[in-house]
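PROTEIN DATA CARD
Card holder: Riboflavin biosynthesis protein RibBA
Chain length: 433
Origin: Haloechinothrix aidingensis
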Amino acid sequence: MSIQPVAARAHPGVPGERTGVPFDQPQRGVADLAAGRMIVVVDDEDRENEGDIVLAAEMATAANVGFMVRHTSGVLCVPMEERRADALHLPPMTPVNEDSKGTAYTVSVDAADGIGTGISAADRAHTIRTLAGRATDPADLNRPGHVFPLRAVEHGVLRRPGHTEAAVDLARLAGLSPACVIGEIVRDDGSVASLPELTTFARQHGMAIVSIADLVEHRRRTERTLTRHAEADLPTRYGSFRAVGYQDAVSGTEHVALTYGDPAGDGVLVRVHSECLTGDAFGSLRCDCGDQFDAALAAIAHEGRGALVYLRDHEGRGIGLTQKLRAYQLQDAGADTVDANVTLGLPVDARDYAPATQILADLGTRTVRLLSNNPAKEAGLSERGIGVVSRQPLHTARTEYNIRYLRTKRDRLHHHLAGLDLDPATPDRCAHP
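Structure generated from the sequence above:
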């Protein structure tokens, strides 16, 4: 099954702001797992929309496993790293995984020794601890059994935002064996508990409630996934830049920084530029991207010091080239750039600026003077540790083809375009009545 890296949030913010639920910080969940406490982990409404009790596998006891059996469906799974499942000779349950969310069940197991029938809370706790044991080998497990191991994908929630990966990530962050026992919380009638019910449940039992989306954001903010792979001189019409190439270990996406002079230190003139093939390479007049790219390189060269960070996978504010062309079709029929994305069922802005902060940190850049009209870029850098000492507008010439696009960026995406004349009387050549 092909697994795609997790898309960034459209508008990152404080934990819980998407639903109004006061989620706990992932760090509290990590601390509670390390202390042997159970937590509740929930995913997004557009995924499974469920909550699981999560406990570090090495902390399993008859008492806490019994609690999990009473308050969940009773099916207890043990997420672990793929390489550990391989080492324990735990193959996939079926040759072809037809689960809609790709949940990677292995063959079920019991501990080979120290249990009765395998179904009691005490027996299952022993099996769960056996799965977490660093010295456990394949002969210590019988197949089939009453506990269901799960295989977590490499890179965890950054690749797949599921409970399987969240549990393994949280255990790893807690410094424990990267395995947990999880069970889906249900109502007394066996139906899946709603988010308000999950919140009430967690508070009643003194358990932290952590959102997978917040865990994804925490990992993006605190972990480095980019590696510098190559660099070379790049003479341009604006001067001689240095091209520095990076690759993301999770997505495989390649990014590049064009540096001029020494970009290390404070107050560095920086442009974070989102890939736009149509504007940057094809010379499209529907947007101002190509003109901004050129203006930024010219400004940095004139400054004598700075960097342009070119982020791939940002085409169409993160929706991709083909989807952007579909959005253009809707814009030709009268929709603006925001409504076109919404009509297609796509996020208004799916860009992630974490790669830019990693690149700037690698270059030694601490604070920047940001060449941008977009407040989201400023926030995306400052929230991840790159100080923005000032934001410098990057205004380019309007055209009859991009004026409605620029108005939408100003009025609906809150770009700072006050210095640009966007008189509504100017005809829009990209909208047909």
